[in-house]
Amino acid sequence: MKIILCGFGVVGQSLVKLFDSRSEDLYAKYGLKPRVVGVFDSKGSAVDSTGLEFIKLVDVKKKFGTVKNYASTKNTMSGIDMLKNLEADVLIETTPSNYKDAEPGMTHITTAMKKGLHVISVNKGPLALAFPSLMELATYNQVMLKFSGTVGGGTPILDYAKNSLNGERITSFSGILNGTTNYILSNMTTGLSFDEALKDAKDRGYVEADESLDLDGLDAAAKLVILANWIMGMKVTMPDINCTGIRKVTTEDIKKAAKNNCAIKLIASCNKELVVEPKEVPKNDPLCVNGTLNAIAFTSEHSGTQTIIGKGAGGMETASSILRDLLDIRQEIAKN
Ligand code: HSE
Questions:
Q1: 223 catalytic residue (yes or no)
Q2: Is the CB of 312 under 6 A from ligand 1?
Q3: What count of other Cβ atoms lies within 10 Å of the Cβ of residue 302?
Q4: Which of the residues 98, 128, 179, 271 could staple to 312 if both were Cys, CB 3.0 to 4.6 A apart?
Q5: Out of 2, 124, 146, 223, which one is annotated catalytic?
Q6: Atom 8 in ligand 1: which residue has the minimum CA distance?
Q7: Which of the four pLDDT bands, split at 50, 70 and 90, describes residue 83?
C-alpha cells in the first residue's frame, strides 16, 4: 500500500515508528506492507517511490526540524504537487485542525480524493466544517474517507457506535470528548484555581497551541459534529453546535457540585439538540472519569446505555487508530 503522509508531527512520527516495529507482523497477519512514498511537513518534503525509510525520517526530522533534508539532493516537490503527481493509494492527513477555514487539510483531502486516493484524516477541521460535502465527494470519486482517530484518539468510539451496535438505533449520546479540559476540571476539585490548573496542564504539554480550541469547547464541538454526522446521520457542521467552554467555571461551582455528590465536566451531548457545555455529573455515573480520560455513553432503543472509557489523545494511540483505518481500507480493496 503506497502512502502519502502529510504533517510529520507527533502523530506522523508515531505512525512510522509503528510501521517499523510491526512490519513483519502486519505482513504476516494482514498482508499489509505500508510503503510511505512521500511525506511533507510545513517546511518541505521527502519522496521515494520505492518507500522512505521509517526511522531515517524520524531522525532527519529530529535533527533538522523538517523532512526536507532526508536526501542529499533536497526534494523540491510541494505537498500539493505530490498529491497530484505521485502515484499512491492512500493519503494520511495529520496536519493541525483549524476551525476557521480547515486549511491546509481541506485542500490536501479534496485534492487527494479527486485524484482517486483513499483518505485517512486525524485532522478534525475539514470534517467539522464540511462533513456532508466531504462524504459526497468521497462517494462521487469512489474512494474511502476514514477518520477513526478524530474522536477518542486510540479508543474506538466511532467504530463501536457504528459497527458494534448494528441494527440498533442510537437515540442519544453524551460524553467527555476533550482530555485537556477534563484534566483541568479534575484538578480544580483538589482546590486549584482555573489559572493554576491551566498552567499545570500547559506545563505537561496537554493544551493545544491555540488554547481556545480546548478551553472554549471547539475541539469537543468538532468531535460532536463528527459523531452526529457519522452515528446519527445528521447533516451538521460547527455552527450547528451550541457551544460553551470552561473559562467561567469557578472553584465555587466545583465545590457546589461536590456537595451534590457531583463533578463538573465539559459534556458534549446529542439529544434533540447538539450542545457542548460544563455540566454537573454524578460522581457514581460511569461517565464521571478524571484526568485526561475521555468517556462517552450511547443510549440505544433496545440495548440500554453503554459507556466507553479510554485515552482520547496521544501520538501512539492516535497512530494505532490510523493503522485500524488502513487495515479496513486494505480489506475493502481486497474484497473488490
Ligand atoms: N486537545 C485534545 C484533547 C487532543 O485535549 O482531548 C485530542 O483531540
A1: yes
A2: yes
A3: 8
A4: 179
A5: 223
A6: 313
A7: very high
pLDDT band at 80 (very low <50, low <70, confident <90, very high): very high
Note the pLDDT of residue 44: 93
C-alpha of residue 86 to centroid of ligand 1, in Å: 32
Total-model pTM: 0.96
- In the structure grid, which three cell numbers stand for residue 24, read together? 513483519
Question: Where does the chain hold its CATH 3.30.360.10 domain(s)?
Answer: 157-311
CATH superfamily for 157-311 is Dihydrodipicolinate Reductase; domain 2 (3.30.360.10)
Distance CA 282, CA 263 (A): 6
CB of 117 closer than 8 Å to CB of 138: no
Cα 14 to chain center, whole Å? 14
Instruction: Ligand 1 pocket test: pick from 98, 180, 216, 322 the residue with the most ligand atoms within 8 Å of its Cβ.
Output: 180
Query: What does pLDDT average to over the chain?
Result: 96
| Ligand 1 contacts CB of residue 208 (under 6 A) | yes
Instruction: For ligand 1, pick from 94, 210, 219, 322 the residue to mutate: most ligand atoms within 8 Å of CB.
Output: 219
pLDDT-derived band of residue 92, with 50, 70 and 90 as boundaries? very high
Ligand 1 proximity of 179 Cβ (cutoff 6 Å) = yes
The answer, yes or no, to whether any atom of ligand 1 lies below 6 A from the CB of 123, is no
What is the pLDDT at residue 336?
81
pLDDT tens per residue across span 258-287: 999 999 999 999 998 999 999 999 999 999
pLDDT at 128 over 90: yes
What's the CA gap between 179 and 171, in Å, rounded?
25
SS3 181: helix
Give the orientation angle of helix 125-140 with respect to helix 105-114, to 10 degrees.
10
Q: Which of 122, 206, 216, 318 is the pocket-test mutation for ligand 1 (most atoms within 8 Å of CB)?
A: 206
Superfamily designation of domain 2-154+315-335: NAD(P)-binding Rossmann-like Domain (3.40.50.720)
**Chain centre to alpha carbon of residue 204:** 20
